[in-house]
Amino acid sequence: MEAVTNFFTEHIGMSYAVVYLLFFVLAYLALKIIMTVFVCKDKIHSVHLKVLKSKSMPICTCKEALKVWQTVLIYLVPIVLMYFVMLVLYLGSERNPVYIVTFLFLSYYMAFDLTLVFYVLFYKIKNRMAYVSVDLHVYQMTTFSNICSEPKQAEKKPNIINPVDFMI
């Protein structure tokens, strides 16, 4: 890690705090992509990394409706791993303040994903849904109570939940 930091600080002129911040944001997004690819069936066509136009936030999407535990796994595992790594680095580096600043900026991205986990678990309990499709991250989700196996069941419209409508 020091070689990468030295390259960016000497050749590009970036401070090492910015290098760490970029590294951990990219590592966090990479973990989300890996977890999404791990649980999706169509790994090539349904997994995308994009930026929400209205919020300018990078998100990883899967076009498939996933089980609730899969959705929680996709978003919770990277959060836990990143918090653990940041804590270990902070404690192992004699309390370097760069890690705290990186931790605070990274917490901004992780807060949206943690909110999504709480929304999914809340709607799992409230609506007893079996599957959820996260369309626009925390801003729009589609829930399904069971798998459509007959054409008559496929005609029913799924429940579309917009959590922003429920905020007071």
Written description of the protein model:
There is one protein chain. The chain is of the alpha+beta class. The strands form 2 sheets. A 4-stranded antiparallel beta sheet has the order 3-4-5-6. It has a two-stranded antiparallel sheet with strand order 1-2. The protein has helices at residues 2-12, 16-39, 68-92, 97-127, 151-154; strands at residues 47-52, 57-62, 66-67, 131-134, 141-144, 159-161. The chain is built from 5 helices and 6 strands; from the N terminus they run ααβββααββαβ. The model has no long low-confidence stretch (mean pLDDT 79). It has one domain (2-166). It is 57% helix and 15% strand.
- As a percent range, the share of helical residues equals 55-70%
Mean pLDDT: 79
Shape: elongated
The total tally of domains equals: 1
Structural class: alpha+beta
Question: What is the succession of H and E elements?
Answer: HHEEEHHEEHE
Overall radius of gyration: 19 Å
Question: Number of DSSP helices?
Answer: 5
**What are the low-pLDDT stretches, counting only 5+ consecutive residues below 50?**
none
Strand order of the largest sheet: 3-4-5-6
Distance between the termini: 45 Å
Can you summarize this structure?
This protein is α+β, with helices and mostly antiparallel strands.
